[in-house]
Amino acid sequence: MVPPERHRQNMNPASRLAIFGSPPAFAEKLHVGRPNIGNRDRFLARLNDILDKRWLTNRGEYVIELERRIGRLVGVRNCVLVSNGTVGLELLIRALGLTGEVIVPAFTFVATAHALQWQEITPVFADIDPDTHCLDPGSVESMITPRTSGIIGVHVWGRPCAIEDLAGIAARRNLKLTFDAAHAFACSHEGRMIGSFGEAEVFSFHATKLINTFEGGAIVTDNDSLAEKLRLMQNFGFAGYDRVIYIGTNGKMSEVCAAMGLTNLDSLDEVIKCNRANYEAYQRQLAGIPGMRLLAYDKRHSSNYQYVVVTVGDDSLLTRDELVEVLHAENVMARRYFFPGVHRMEPYKSYFPHAHLLLPVTEQVCRQVLILPTGTAVSEAEIARVCEVIRTALGAASLVRKRLAALRRPAS
After folding, report:
1. Over the stretch 326-382, which tens digit does the pLDDT of each residue have?
2. Which domain holds residue 262?
3. b/e per residue, 222-255, with b = 16+ CB within 10 A?
4. Residue where a domain stops, chosen among 266, 297, 314
């Protein structure tokens, strides 16, 4: 809901901003990504079927169907559904036998590093490419030591890593290569679907992702023996009734979660179409604003357009953090994704206090990245209003900066 425009008429541009006392542009919070629900009737029909059959977990028909459909979409023989993407990473890391050190970006969600550290494997942070925000192969090569056992690339924003370069490094140095593909479901690289590269890849189906299963994830691979080991590991090591042959945990997906995933998958094309339309609306609205660069998606690769990513450059009239303050006052919950970088989070900040000296691009991107609301719950009119707030704030930058400084001062 947006307050009537009359509240903002007859005001100079700066005074229309909420930080100056005007009503927020949005009466309710506009989040970066609200969950995609899909067709509610289809989901409820599946839910009633699950309840009628009383098969709630332990690899029922909906889990099997979702694994089959994901494997077919990605173009791999094996899809192992798991309870969430983090558990998927942990299982894969263990199944691959990674030890010692594994090279990862610091510009990622903290779970990428935690999945290693949880198993007493040291995440070694390499820098990223300034254009793609994915691992820089040159930095990766420089971080390899005799203790390095693998590389985990992250397809940030659904934009593919430098896959061939990383694969070449892994082959030359006898390292395991895998990918955190949490952002990249239904994306491709040079005509081949993400999920089919490296030893295996891990998807996240968290509530805010393109396809959600409430909570969930998947490990996808063409390595049959690896998939067999993963299936054992995610179900306590059971190989048939009352027969445990391997150490394992409980990483299964439930039937209800799989039903939600199937319902979302039914709407995949419509969701991507909506995301792309939103991205193009932002592209039109933000064009020509100094210091604001909307990250482009490479036309050689298909994308899910799940994220609208803006870098607020040093030539911007306001900093990224100042814009975030302005937008939050308007109930636009823009995000500073992966801020301040995993290398500046605990325990890594204490383990590697000088890591930032080797990560100049990561440091810069962490200061500049701004993620704007999109998804099926966001309209083109709302996008226009978000961009109007940005233009207004930048057009009165000196007044905005002074006002923000005053608001930050504690009351005497």
Report:
1. 999 999 999 999 999 999 999 999 999 999 999 999 999 999 999 999 999 999 999
2. 40-266
3. bbeebbebbbbbbbebbeeeeeeeeebeebbbbb
4. 266
